Amino acid sequence: MSVQTEHADSVPQAVPAKEDAPPGGPAAAGRRTGGAAPYLLLVPALLATVVLLGYPLVKNGMLSFQNLNPRQLILHLTEWNGFSNYQDVLGGSDFWKVVERSIFFTAANVVLIMVLGTLTGLLLARLGKKMRLLLMLGLVLAWAMPVIAATTVYQWLFAQRFGVVNYVLDSLGWHSMADFNWTGSQFSTFSVVTLLIVWQSVPFVAINLYAASTTIPGELYEAASLDGAGNWKSFTSVTFPLLKPFLLATTFLEVIWVFKSFTQIFAINGGGPDRLTETLPVYAFVEGVGNQHFGMGAAISFLTMIVLLVLTGYYLRTVLKQEED
User: Fold this and answer.
1) By the 8 A CB rule, do 86 and 64 touch?
2) How is residue 14 annotated by DSSP?
3) DSSP 173
4) Residue 24 region, left (φ>0) first, then alpha (ψ -120 to 50), else beta?
């Protein structure tokens, strides 16, 4: 009995928990306290998105179901016509021609942008410090130039009578190019617009790719060199696999940026000649604001968003499938 009594007396009594102590300890209390903080910080951005993007989107959707022309605007009439605008657009051949043209135009520009941007980014990684700084300065200046200012410069460069390009080509012996009209045909107009868009987009790809390439450990190149890999083998086995996620994400952004290009095409020639260079954004503006068929323009803009969502959705599905593989 004495052994049991001594053992019982030696056991320390449990300290009663404080009534105000939250279950789970201080860590759980901290998690519960800060759990709502991230969502509260998102509230201003969500409100701004709803006001600046949500309201115009809803308003545009309502207009696409209305017959809205100058008469209705002057008399303050609201004439609902259901899906008539969408039926007129989808039932005509012009819309599908513009869709096909927009897809090919976007594909050509994105391919050129990604190829030239990747080559320029790899060049930046191999240049010396001074040359790299000089090239990056030129890229930043090209990228930072306002779109309408860059478009004005290209209009001057490719002007028919006093353009620098025609003067240089004439001086080099191509006398037939002395008075060449660069906006007189579909191909030449798209060539100028493509050159402008590629020139504006390459700096973004090049600088970001160079930044991504600096994160590749040098030991990987040393190991590839010890295995006998040359420059091309090092690129295909080390550089490209590690930069592939960046290239996929950048391609996705460029598809969106090129597809919705409006200023360059409209400012160069207004979608001409004979509306042969209109892409979907320009087509929606010309039909809506230019021809004052505002309901029709709203329907075309909504269909433009659907086409872009289909393209980006297909691309995202491809990217996710590659990541799973």
Assistant:
1) yes
2) P
3) T
4) left
Whole-structure pTM value = 0.79
d(CA 70, CA 75): 9
Residue 309's nearest CA partner among 297, 301, 320 is 301
Distance of alpha carbon 74 from alpha carbon 94, whole angstroms? 29
Question: What phi and psi, each to the nearest 5 degrees, are found at residue 66?
Answer: -125, 155
Task: Look up residue 199 and give its two tokens.
Answer: 């020139």
Give the closest residue to 244 by CA, choosing from 202, 216, 221, 207. Answer: 216
Query: Could you give the 3-state DSSP secondary structure of residue 272?
Result: coil
Cα Rg of the chain, angstroms? 30
Three-state SS at 181: coil
Residue 73 CB coordination number (10 Å): 11
SS3 category, 294: helix
Task: Determine the number of helices (DSSP H) and then strands (DSSP E) in the chain.
Answer: 17, 0
Residue with tokens 């930043």: 140
Nearest to 253 by CA among 144, 113, 137, 122: 113
Q: Tens digits of per-residue pLDDT, 61-119?
A: 898 898 888 888 887 788 888 888 899 899 888 899 999 999 999 999 999 999 999 99
